[in-house]
Amino acid sequence: MDEVTLLNQFQNIRQASINGNRAPHKPLLLLYVLSRLWVEQNHRLFSFEEIDPKLTELLDRFYISKKKQNTTDPFTRLLADRIGWELKGIEDFERQYASKLSERKLLDRGVAGGFDQETVTVLLDQPNLILQIAHILLVKNFPESYFSAICRELGFPDPLKDFITFDFVNPSLEPNDATPTSKRDPNFRENVLNAYRRKCAFCGSSIRLRDTLVDLEAAHIRWHCYDGPDTIPNGLALCSSHHKLFDWGAIGLERDSDSYRILLAFTLNSSGPIESWLEQIRGSNILLPLEQQHWPDPTFVEWHQNQVFEKQR
After folding, report:
1. Which of 37, 39, 178, 287 pairs with 155 at a CA distance of 20 to 30 A?
2. For residue 270, what pLDDT is reported?
3. Are 225 and 142 in contact (CB under 8 A)?
4. pTM for this predicted structure
C-alpha cells in the first residue's frame, strides 16, 4: 500500500448521520487512534475498555446529544470502511456481525481495535501522513474554529496545517480539498460582509486598522463540511468572538416575526466584562441585510438550531 492509496481510503470514509443528525463518532475515534500513533510512534491495538471513556469524553466536548454517547458503533463499524481497521478478540465468523456486538460483550471478551500492521507501517514510515489524515478528518467534520481545541486535546501540533508537507501527494488530495465537493467560493467572505454592511450581525461592531477589517468574518450557518453552501443566505457577518461562539453552539438563532432573535446556550457561563458583553445581545434581533433575498435561510437556521446550538436538555 502506498501513501496516495491510504489517503484515498480516508477521503472516502462515509460521513455518518443518525436520523439525519451529524454524528462525528468515527472521525473522533480515528483522530484519537492517530494521535496515539503520532505520540507513541509504535503499533498497538486499543481495547474497547480504553476507547469507551476516551471517545465518550471527546463526544461530550465536541458534539451535542440528548442521548448517552454511543461508542460501540464506530469501534466496530470501521471494519466496513476499508481503512485497514482490525478487531482482535472476536471469531472470524462474527466479523460480519461485529456491529451487533453489545458493549458488555466487547468488554467481557477484551476486544481490541486499531489499524492493521500494513497501515501502521505506511503511517510510521511517513509520520507526516498521520497529520495529513488528521487534517482531512477535521476538515470533513468540523468548522475551523474547532481545530485547535481538538488538536490540543489529543496532542497534535497546533495549528496542524503549519506542520504538514505534501511532497509526495497529488495536489488534488491535499486536506484543504478534502472532498471533490468541498471547494470553497473565494468570494463568500466578501459577499457576506458586504450584505451585512461590514458590521457584526450580533453586536454591530467592526474594527479597522487603516482600511483593513481585522475582526470581521463570514460564518456559515449550516457548516460547510455538512453541505452548507457558500451563499449569502447561509452566511453571517460576525466578529471573531461571536463567530466562534456561534460555531460551538453557545449562540443560536430563533425566528422572530420578520427577524431572528439571538439565543444564548443554557450552559454558557462567563464572568467579568465579557458577561455584560454577552448579556447585551441576549434576546435582541440580529442585524439583517437590506435585501430580503440575502436574509438567513430558515432551513439553514433550523439545521444550526438542531445540530449545533446547545439547547436545554
Report:
1. 178
2. 81
3. yes
4. 0.87
